[in-house]
Write a structure and sequence with these properties.
Elements lengths: L3 E2 L5 E2 L23 H9 L8 H15 L12 H28 L26 H28 L12 H26 L2 H12 L14 H7 L13 H18 L5 E4 L3 E4 L3 H9 L11 H4 L8 H13 L1
Antiparallel strand pairs: 1-2, 3-4
This protein binds zinc ion (2 copies).
One zinc ion (ZN) binds next to helix 9.
Length: 330
């Protein structure tokens, strides 16, 4: 009734919200019954499991590993030089990646509000944020996050250099090497769901996770705008390499995905549109709805934990009505 049509012909409700057609869906791996054809389409299709994001993160990891990682022999002892090299490389990587998303979508407004969930742009002059500015606040906390990620990475590299960690490489066990890379998104999703539920426990929410949730109208830099305690929990997914035989490349891939993924999942847009033609769909409505409603969608799309534990919101108006009824009843 109060819906309006914006300059791109998209329908927005009275709150200025736009929703893509279709519902939020999980990866079909857990959708039974499924068909081998549907699985193959999901795995090899574009967008699909491998492309673009998995492939992009893996490519960046390989480049960082080959060209921007100190020599292992130097990492036997904890010394400032190589630790700072890792920190610098990670700051530059996040700066370029998240910065590019921000420039295109928000600074240049390269695609206007096409595929943007929220009609508004990030808050300037808002006292709730550091420096009274949402973007500056978000960039600051994201960089603290990179320091904490780099701390985990340094300690793990030190462990590998001293042969103190369970190790496996491509020559020794090629099947496990590839399989572990493919399993990484599932591990990360499972881990994220668990720590995310934990920090929604009211005492931790009030002291730690509130900082991330100041961002209702999210942008790429909001992704890692977290309290340092949340950063430590978030990047603790790297501790899996203390027990699971891995190559340092697995550890780096885990870290790179964990650090770059939030920029994409918080971009606030459903798709990247270049020149009105090429389009990379991101389907990040799931986490956007978490920022709008707080008590839905704690996880991501690889492992359907939210479906199993009854906190799933698929973006449809039926799910919206159910959510409001639940909230009114509680
Ligand atoms: Zn978030
Ligand atoms: Zn949350």
């Amino acid at each position: 009734m109060t819906d309006t049509t914006d300059e791109h012909g998209q329908t927005r409700d009275r709150r200025g919200e736009w929703r893509p057609e279709g519902r939020v869906r999980f990866m079909p791996l857990f959708d039974w019954p499924t068909t081998p054809r549907a699985l193959a389409r999901w795995f090899f299709g574009v967008p699909g499991f491998l492309l673009p994001w998995f492939g992009l993160y893996l490519g960046l990891t390989i480049i960082a590993y080959l060209f921007f990682t100190p020599d292992m022999a130097r990492m036997v002892t904890l010394q400032r030089g190589w630790m700072l090299e890792i920190l610098t490389r990670n700051l530059v990587m996040v700066g370029l990646f998240t910065g590019a998303l921000h420039l295109w979508l928000y600074r240049w407004r390269g695609q206007g509000r096409r595929a943007k969930y929220n009609a508004n742009w990030p808050a300037e002059r808002d006292k709730r944020f550091l420096f009274n500015n949402q973007v500056y606040d978000n960039v600051f906390w994201s960089n603290i996050g990179v320091v904490i990620w780099s701390g985990f990475e340094v300690l793990l590299w030190w462990g590998y250099a001293n042969q103190a960690l369970p190790f496996s490489d491509l020559a020794q066990n090629p099947v496990w090497f590839v399989l572990w890379l493919l399993l990484m998104p599932f591990w990360r999703n499972f881990h994220f769901y668990c720590i995310h539920r934990l920090i929604h426990w009211p005492p931790l929410y009030r002291t730690v996770h509130y900082l991330h949730h100041k961002n209702v109208n999210v942008g790429p830099w909001s992704g890692m705008a977290m309290h340092p305690v949340e950063h430590a929990l978030y990047f603790s997914c790297l501790l899996i390499h203390l027990v699971v035989p891995s190559h340092p490349l697995h550890m780096m891939f885990n870290g790179v995905t964990t650090a770059l993924g939030p920029g994409v999942s918080h971009s606030g847009f459903d798709a990247l549109v270049f020149g009105g033609r090429a389009e990379i769909r991101k389907e990040k409505l799931m986490h956007y709805l978490h920022h709008r409603y707080h008590s839905v969608n704690f996880g991501e799309s690889a492992v359907p934990m939210d479906k199993w534990f009854g906190s799933f919101h698929d973006g449809s108006s039926e799910a919206d009505a159910q959510f409001r009824a639940r909230r009114a009843g509680s």
